[in-house]
Write a structure and sequence with these properties.
Shape: globular
Number of helices: 13
Order of helices and strands: HHHHEEHHEEHHEHHEHEEEEHEHE
Strand content: 15-25%
Helix content: 25-40%
Oligomer: single chain
Distance between the termini: 81 Å
Length: 369
């Protein structure tokens, strides 16, 4: 019996490596929603040989045979049997809702650490300097904060999360720049629309088309009112609302369950053709999460725009791009005067998600006097 158990044990631990040798890669980067370790590089240099053992270990940990299956089984047992989230980065909410629990998202929901007066003053200085510098070049500046899902759907959060304060960092920032006239508060419009329909994904960090459209309308109303030549926002009558069964979102991926859970995607299908096309990177989708993405309406005389953004802007790109002849979307929070001087936009829009107000510190000195 002992020999049988030893033999069985040896077979089990040898299976993953044997699967790799047979050509089976156990990785599933899409299913896990992260970039997995690449194969180690080996050449004639001493440095590559020194790094090879560490690189191979990292690669094998992510690619050993049957890994994705084991990850999925582990996630299913923890979620469906034990009733807990398989990932520390994801909070299991109520009624099938999941929330991001990393990157200060929980602290942001709890209002755990308000900005200091110096923090608010630094933000105000950064915004005011950008606004002043742009105004000298006849460029309009609009600043907005994308609300995290917990702001609109706090009733589905785990009961273990409690508010520690009444004022959020988004409140502090928008109040601090209120008299500058460039801030756009997306929350009132989103709250009203959320009362009528679901505006965020249950298994994803982000809003769906309905939420993105609500944010887009609020932003474009402000831009249209102050920038001649920017068309009015499209209305809901310009879209056909559809509900689609879809693969689960990024939170499911963080739990290793992207191919297990499902999402009802509440989409908006345009009834009239969209004119804007992506020119950089060539062939990319408008919603692609690229660090540098450019959309163009060929032959259009409309104004131009530069947008500093994060992942919440991705669903907005197809909507916003219809209002400008050219838009450059940059995945960064810092203001970049060199890009502005190169692009000669009529509008600059920085967008930042609320939880990033915990980690990102603006740098007013980046804006020339």
């Amino acid at each position: 019996m002992r020999a049988l158990l030893v033999s069985l044990f040896l077979v089990v631990i040898a299976l993953p490596g044997a699967a790799n040798l047979a050509g089976r890669d156990g990785a599933d980067p899409h299913g896990e929603n992260r970039e997995l370790a690449p194969p180690p590089h080996l050449d004639a240099t001493l440095a590559s040989w020194e790094k090879y053992p560490t690189g191979f270990t990292a690669w094998f940990d992510d690619h050993f045979g049957f890994r994705s299956t084991l990850v999925r089984w582990s996630g299913e047992i923890r979620l469906f049997v034990l009733g807990v989230s398989p990932s520390r980065a994801v909070a299991k909410g109520l009624d099938g809702w999941f929330f991001y629990a990393d990157d200060n998202a929980i602290e942001d929901d709890a209002n755990a650490a308000p900005m200091t007066d110096a923090d608010v003053a630094n933000w105000r200085l950064a915004v005011r300097r950008a606004q002043t510098w742009l105004a000298a070049r006849r460029i309009r500046y609009f600043f907005t904060v994308a609300p995290d899902k917990h702001v609109l759907y706090g009733e589905y959060l785990p009961r273990t999360i409690a508010k520690l304060g009444d004022v959020s960092r988004t409140d502090q920032l928008l109040n601090g720049i209120g008299d500058l006239g460039c801030g756009i508060d997306l929350r009132p419009s989103l709250s009203a629309d959320t009362a009528r329909e679901r505006t965020y994904q249950r298994t994803d960090t982000h809003w769906n088309d309905r939420g993105a459209f609500s944010a887009y309308q609020q932003m474009l109303r402000a831009v249209h009112a102050r920038v001649p030549g920017v068309p009015e926002a499209w209305s809901r009558d310009d879209f056909e609302p559809v509900a689609r069964d879809a693969e689960a979102g990024d939170l499911a991926g963080m739990m290793g369950l992207r191919r297990v859970l499902r999402e009802e995607d509440l989409a908006l299908v345009p009834k009239r053709p969209r004119r804007a096309i992506v020119t950089q990177p060539a062939g990319a989708a408008p919603t692609a999460e690229e660090g540098y993405l450019v959309t163009v309406i060929p032959g259009s005389p409309l104004p131009r725009a530069v947008v500093f953004r994060d992942s919440f802007m991705s669903r907005l790109v197809p909507f916003v791009s219809e209002h400008f002849s050219r838009v450059v979307y940059l995945w960064q929070n810092d203001f970049d005067p060199a890009i502005v001087e190169r692009e000669h936009p009529d509008v600059v829009i920085p967008e930042i998600v609320g939880r990033h107000l915990y980690g990102f510190i603006p740098s007013p000195e980046l804006v020339p006097e």
